[in-house]
Design brief:
This protein is of the alpha+beta class.
Length: 412
């Protein structure tokens, strides 16, 4: 029997809530807790919505009990006969539990925590004439929790099994004459509910889901890069693929280190999910933009800017244009999103606009069908009337209004 001072017990990280809940179970409250377990299961089996008015559901307490059992079961030393016992008073075994199903098995799931004892005589005190006792085989995997050290009735040598454990009956009843009358004994084999979670696991469920999702996002990126038409399966020009994936891993690493509480807050969890999913898109965009720029003959400076830029820099077309051109003071967002912007060329240093760029603008104005209008010296010239390029006097830095994205791209 474990002592409270045992090192093995201390290493289980039992919290005060679990100890308190287990001690409550060992007293009169276990009847109410067991009823709640089974009531919920009864509603579930009949497809009913679980709703109990004016009644305590003890939801947190029930979780704490199951969590404590799960932890304590790890250090339970099996009895020499590898059996535990449970007595039932004024009860008979249900016939359907003893009927063999289509798979050749008989038994069922106990929806409540299963309380047993290693002492047959204790089980006998819970039975009586016309009642029965279960002899339950246990094993290396199917283990219970010894709660004697915290029990209100330590002499009962109580062993608890998690809720929703399965009992398989392996023979018919054997009748015994005892000092409490003739009692039926059924042998059973237990399969513990190995999916029962601890309180810590419940708290970390969202974080675990996030971590699983992040692994899938990484795999999706690698798959998309292999299948992308512009990406060669083996070549990695400029190390862009490896670098982008490394940036994504850094993003995920930062998010994974956050406290569980961040994931259990709805608004924060939504933001974290969005950040990770957007990060995948930004990673793929970074590789795509780099390869497109490389194919378009962009200079080394532009390619280095793109390669070294953080993933967030690929969250919008405007930011990408700033990377490709190297000009961050230009109102790219207004041009891309609003397709209209007021620009005073007088604030620009004439040396920042190459002569070749000027020629591109002049050549494009008369041929690009996406250009709608431009304001020069306060006079609007519609596309349907054609363009007179002599109005665009770059040397005098005339103001241009409603400059669409097409022209902005052609500026550089």
């Amino acid at each position: 029997m474990p002592k409270k001072s045992d090192t093995s017990l201390q290493n289980l990280n039992l919290c005060e809530e679990e100890v308190a809940a287990l001690r409550l179970w060992t007293g009169p409250m276990h009847q109410q807790y067991a009823k709640n377990y089974r009531d919920k299961a009864q509603h579930f089996n009949h497809g009913e919505q679980i709703h109990v008015e004016n009644a305590d559901k003890y939801t947190t307490t029930l979780h704490a009990i199951n969590s404590g059992i799960t932890k304590l079961a790890r250090i339970w030393k099996l009895p020499a006969n590898r059996r535990v016992f449970r007595g039932y008073r004024k009860m008979k075994m249900k016939e359907n539990a003893l009927q063999m199903d289509c798979f050749g098995c008989k038994g069922g799931v106990d929806c409540s925590v299963l309380a047993t004892t290693v002492d047959y005589d204790v089980a006998l005190t819970y039975s009586g004439p016309g009642s029965f006792i279960l002899e339950i085989d246990v094993g290396q995997v199917d283990r219970g929790a010894d709660v004697s050290w915290l029990s209100q009735f330590p002499h009962e040598k109580e062993i608890l099994f998690t809720a929703l454990s399965n009992l398989e009956f392996i023979n018919d009843a054997l009748w015994h004459t005892t000092n409490r009358g003739v009692i039926a004994t059924y042998s059973a084999r237990i399969s513990s509910n190995l999916r029962s979670r601890t309180l810590e696991e419940f708290k970390s469920m969202r974080k675990s889901l996030f971590q699983d999702m992040s692994k899938n996002l990484r795999k999706e990126i690698e798959h998309n890069l292999r299948e992308a038409p512009m990406v060669m399966p083996t070549a990695d020009p400029g190390g862009i693929k490896a670098g982008a994936i490394e940036d994504f891993e850094k993003l995920l690493s930062r998010l994974r280190k956050l406290d569980e509480g961040e994931f259990n807050n709805d608004e924060k969890y939504k933001r974290l999910l969005t950040e990770a999913i957007d990060g995948k898109g930004h990673t793929l965009s970074k590789v795509s933009i780099f390869l497109e720029s490389l194919a378009a003959g962009f200079g080394e400076d532009a390619l280095v800017r793109i390669r070294d830029a953080p993933l967030e820099s690929f969250s919008s077309r405007a930011k990408v244009l700033a990377l490709q051109t190297g000009i961050v003071g230009f109102p790219w967002s207004a041009i891309v999103e609003e397709r209209s912007v007021d620009i005073d060329l007088g604030v620009w240093d004439g040396s920042a606009i190459l002569e070749k760029a000027r020629e591109h603008v002049v050549a494009a104005l008369g041929s690009n069908s996406n250009i709608r209008s431009v304001m020069v010296r306060g006079v609007r010239l519609d596309f349907s009337d054609g363009w007179d390029t002599k109005f665009l006097n770059w040397q005098e830095n005339e103001a241009v209004n409603a400059l669409p994205a097409t022209v902005a791209v052609l500026l550089w």
